[in-house]
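User: Please predict the structure of the protein below. I'd like the answer in structure-token form so I can feed it into my own downstream comparison script.

Assistant: Understood. Taking the following sequence of 314 residues as input:
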Amino acid sequence: MSKSVSTAKPKQSFGSYIRRYWQLYLLLLLPMLYLIIFKYVPMIYVQIAFKKYSIVQSVWKMPWAKNHGMQYFIQAFSNPDFLRALRNTIGLNLLDLVVGFPIPIIFALILNELVFTKFKKVVQTITYMPHFLSWVIIYGLALQLFAPSTGFVNILITKMGGETVPFLNDPAHWIWTYIFLGVWQSFGWNSIVYLAAIAGINSELYEAASVDGAGRFSKMWHITLPGIRPTIVILLIMAIGNIVGSGFDRPFALQNNLVMNVAEVLSTYVYRYGIKGLQFSLTTAVGLFQSVVGVIFLLGANTLSRKLGERGLW
């Protein structure tokens, strides 16, 4: 009888695998060092949230705060300014999500339907440009457009017989100006991801739909949108995870004393109390609270998406 020949490949040792692909691991070294040095090592100082901060002592030697280290968390939640900043952060981020999240998707769908390539590229370039402007410059443009007496928009309104609109001075109007400027600044850039996802859809699906008599809207609804749905879900999960977080530059540049009741967010609260007020333990506690709540939202959104049949982040 002839012996059966084994077709299984010999198991490769870890050392030989490293020797074979050492260039790839060398390329991975710098990003890993960056993450360790700038992301994980600073986590040591999270314990400042539970200790009485002292600039002359090591973080390990600082005394623990009262109430088993929870003194600054209790202090934050009993502070009306913190509660107001938390309310504003969640409210503005929810409005950003509801108003700003669908617009890049709609824009990408419309841009994908444009036939003239040169016109499409011009539109893309124009809509991408605001992303590269700082919020200080955008606020300067907003002043030129929306200032109560000297802004171009209000001058136009008054010449047409209307009354000036306090876009930047009235809290209700400021909120929608804030959302509008955020959408204008980011929707073109955010649409790049969706355009890349659309480019990955099999073109044969569109050809088959055309043969069946489907129009542009039908192909968009039944082919394009389902094709980019995984991308939409992933970006939505990430946006939900950031619902209690906010950038510093946008609210700081646009806020003023007349609208602080709705413009103060957690990032500017941390700057005002932590950097200017030197309350480092309090603001570290606020930052830790933001991170923990953000992770909870992220995990919840990811779990919900997987239960609904989507892939999720992991």
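That's the full token string. The CA atoms of residues 45 and 59 lie 7 Å apart.
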